[in-house]
Predict the structure.
Amino acid sequence: MNKSEVVFTAGATEALAGAMLGMLDAGDEVVLFEPMYDSYQAGIALASAVPVPVLLRPLDDGTYGFDADAFRAAITDRTKLILLNTPHNPTGKVFTRDEMDLIAEVAIEHDLVVVTDEVYEHLVFDGGAHVPMATLPGMAERTLTISSGGKTFHTTGWKIGWMTGPAELVTAARMAKQYLTYVNGAPFQPATAVGLRLGDEYYTTLVADL
């Protein structure tokens, strides 16, 4: 497996924009789920790429799901990457292990990169379980994971996020990101790093308190 790298950014939204600008060429297609966080289409448009949405629809049990055939059909020879947000904003959906396995299978089959927005990774309730895409077989080398100190540590105003993944994916996103923000909260980066070293009890307490 290629060497992994972590880099702090000025928030998760900026990291996503950097990923879109650094990885996409004009006309490339990005498969993603709708409804979606409003900055996704803007980031894709900045790269002159094309969003290809797959519908998340309400199910009888009160959760959301998507049609596997529709997802597979969204992939074309112009698809460059899959953009996945789980736990999901705005529906609150936590993608299941079976759904994650399907997305991973398609990514590997078509040799696609997956960019995951996992800013709510620790805010999972009612016995749900978040499955990080990069932990699935064959996915660490093709997944760029983005998360946020603002969500995890209640420090929204600090605007500190991070992206992690194979060095070449992080480098591609960082090379574009460096032109989006000249300086991003330098004093807050080591503070966020301290937070990331907290034990599991912090995260269980976080969920319990909320």
Q: What stands out?
A: The helical segments are 12-23, 39-46, 68-74, 97-109, 149-152, 167-177, 188-196, 200-209.
